[in-house]
## 1
Amino acid sequence: MKKHNFSAGPSILAPEVIENTAKAVRDLNGIGLSIMEISHRGKDFQAVIDETVALFKEILEIPEGYHVLFLGGGASMQFCMIPYNLLAFKAAYLETGSWAKKAIKEAKLFGNVEVVGSSADKNYNYIPRGYVIPEDADYFHVTTNNTIFGTEIKEDLDSPVPLIADMSSDIFSRPMDVSKYGVIYGGAQKNLGPAGVTFVIIKEELLGKVSRQIPTMIDYRTHIEKESMFNTPPCLPIYTCMETLRWIKKLGGLEKMKQRNDEKAKIIYDEIDRNSMFVGSAEEASRSIMNACFVMKPDYKDLEKDFLEFATQNNIVGIKGHRSVGGFRASIYNAMSIDSVKVLVDIMKKFEKKHAK
């Protein structure tokens, strides 16, 4: 029986990506060896990482002067690596959720941090506006999509200082201008591949400007010089990322992704707004295209558990909201099909018909 997987991460992958990865686990390209057991320094894996980098650059139209790296440690490791490498005196951060708050905490270990805007006053249910980015900051850091709270920055911001973006959960979801960013990073496990690999797109000219000694493994220049091969990279997750990028390219690239994602988001948000039992948790203008968060209206709060059970009975998984928000969260990343979104909407309608007062 087909499951409709709305999990926030690790999350859904395209069926052909899973199938092709499974084939490579059994036998990579007919060489008689699994992708999990070949040398990362051999020609067979070199071909994988070369194609993955090339697809990153092609699909995102990455300009000259940038490097694509594949590292370990998740986006959380980048919370430390960014300031370690880039924060000389002061950094600016936008606080839009739990992950942004964690990034701010790490940055404070390395220098002065100015939080230019925050939506903590309303439990991060909106993207701050009207803030001023200090021109004397070494960089300005944003988290573009906030999975827990269902808010998203949907455009490439203009910044007078290098713009750093955690794009763990919305990378490859829309066309973007990479030249506006100094660093784009994220964990793969929401929109790109399985857990275990972190992508970093970094402008090389930003490096080498801090006076502190940087440990070898934390220094981006180490990984640029060795082309992500200073130590053994996460080979299997990188392979799956390559398959995902092949799939995106075949579907028509980022314009097609945006069209699909906008359509899915409209379907689910239209139902949230129409349904008499539910209400969206994020401010309408800040709503995420990747994570639709909603709760039961006060009169139906006692039916939350019943709705989760009803969804599970109908093969819908992963819609329970984060504990800091409650309610429900439908993660509709790139690989989520429109058909699955329509199944969820149908379940919401049936539940309303059965329980609405």
Note: The two ends are 33 Å apart (CA to CA).
## 2
Amino acid sequence: MNKIINSVIIGVVITVTETSYAQPIPQGFQAVIKDNSVQVYKKDYPNGKQEYVTVVNIVNATITNLTGEVVNTQERIRKKLITEFWQDAATRNTSTKKARVVINGAFFSTNDNPTGIAFGLKASGRIITYGYAIGKEYPGQIRTFSWNNKGGAITPYSKDIFNSSNADVVGALDATADKSASRYLPRTFVGVNKNMVIFYSSNYARQIDAATILRNFGASTTAMLDGGGSTNIVIDGKPLIATNRSIPHALVIYSGR
């Protein structure tokens, strides 16, 4: 059996009652992966822009938090490359569960290693940090993306969310928070709608582009995850948007449970 070195992998299966995804696929998007639990769609543009949308049916799929080694006394996490997170994810494959997609997640300090998490992180019931930037950055615009055995949600930031029964919480920002909003940059966003969690990854997009695509795919609520040089996506082991930047946290989407 393969071993995982310097990695903490913490996961939860989300179970709700609805199972179908009937939202029409926006024009120009082609299926890369399509099964009853995980679908990935891609759109290419003449200028080299790429957009990937990962639709997760959390009745039949698994969303798992991966982190580097957590340094408890400092509320910090050692960073890893997205390809290392993929390797870690693949070691957890089973006969009924297979890693399909790995993307980046939480905002963090790019200058530090181990690094702090800006807007909080809770994994499998363990509060790693409430966030070093709370009360200092983006007042009123900090959000949380959370999930438990009933579904996912995007809500305004509150420590009560971290202290609640929600097993997993990732700090995020409102889709309108100004992170060079009008510039074309790599972007990672997340949206939710009933039993669907929808991730957006692009190498060249404005914030409004990311939020609009998520809503076109059916998301009722959206939020911004870390972007810029942190935006990464690995699909079936192939890095399709990747940088040399190491990151402390990633989200893995598995088909099956």
Note: The helical segments are 82-90, 159-163, 207-216.
## 3
Amino acid sequence: MDKGLIIFDVGGVLRNSSLALNEGYRRGFASFGMSYGFDALDTWHLRGLARYNGGLECMKALLAFEHSGESIKEVLRNPDAELIIGGLIERHLRADDVEIAKKIESIYRKYFHSDEAKKLVTLFPGTDGIMAELKENGYELAIFSNSVKATIERDLMEVDIGRFSMVLSEEDVKRKKPSGEGITTIMKALGMSRKRTFYIGDAVSDVQAAKDAGCISIAVLWGMGTRTQLERAKPDMIFVDLAEARDYFVGRRG
């Protein structure tokens, strides 16, 4: 029986890339002779915010935290973290920081997508087995990520990629998340309705993308997003991890 379509984000859902991400940032800061005092969990959770999910805005935020001495961990405990970080950027970003942020982002991306970074990326426990179980229980599976396809394939080498009917990356869409374009594209291609499609992500932008596409939004808590920020985004469901999500899906009647 076809029970519906489950679309997965990759980073923070299927793979733990927090160490590789943080190492890329550290290298970017080091290239300018700058100190870097952030730990991997804090920078990962910063990326869990929609506005700072990646790119230039995230680099600007890190520079503002470095200059101000404020704690990422403490700021992210506040439901209004995005507004607070915006204020830090406004007050503490220096005249040449935007150009520095662009160069740090370039260094980070080059490292993160390299074979060297793969050594710091791991699959979350049980990922392949959970995918197999969902497939066996009648679900169609797909992937939509803001990452590049080569990196998705690099990090999912231990997963049977053939179980996924479609794999969409940032190269396949005009608008990345928080746009729901990728999710909508998959639903249309596979002939699945919004009511029978689930999108599983770990960041606020994932919840926003699912809502934009009109499908059922699910957040997991072992990735980028903190519970405080994800609850504020109001996904339809929140699970601790993929195992808890699997238990829900396997128990559904369809």
Note: The chain has two domains: 4-16+121-251, 18-118.
